[in-house]
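Morning run. Coffee first, then this:
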Amino acid sequence: MDAQVDHGALWEVDKPAATYHRPVSTRSGPDPGVPPVTTITSAPEPLGVDQARRQRRYLVQMGIRLVCFLGAVILWPHVPLAVSLVLVGGAVVLPYIAVLGANAGRERQDRPGDALVHPQIEAGPERPGLDR
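And here it is:
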């Protein structure tokens, strides 16, 4: 009942690779005459990923605002007035820009084929005897 299994045959690397039923192309782009395939990559990113990306961007901008504000306060007596005013201006303007970016929401991606097609219904033939 003990079947002899040749384990060495499983690991042979000198055998030719599997053959394909059709030649593999190395060029990029769709093959002519082959209809496009809908893939999951054409789906929009999940809402949680979008929110996390916007939160990260907002926090980075608020961090830059904090650096501008602290830089203006600490460097006020040591640098020219114009440098301090630019830092204060950045600390004042950045919250507005950050809030606009955070509230922008999901960007709409218009892709061909995503639009709903509304077929037009044409009037049928006239039927005698119906009063309109």
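Helices lie at 47-75, 81-102. Good start to the day.
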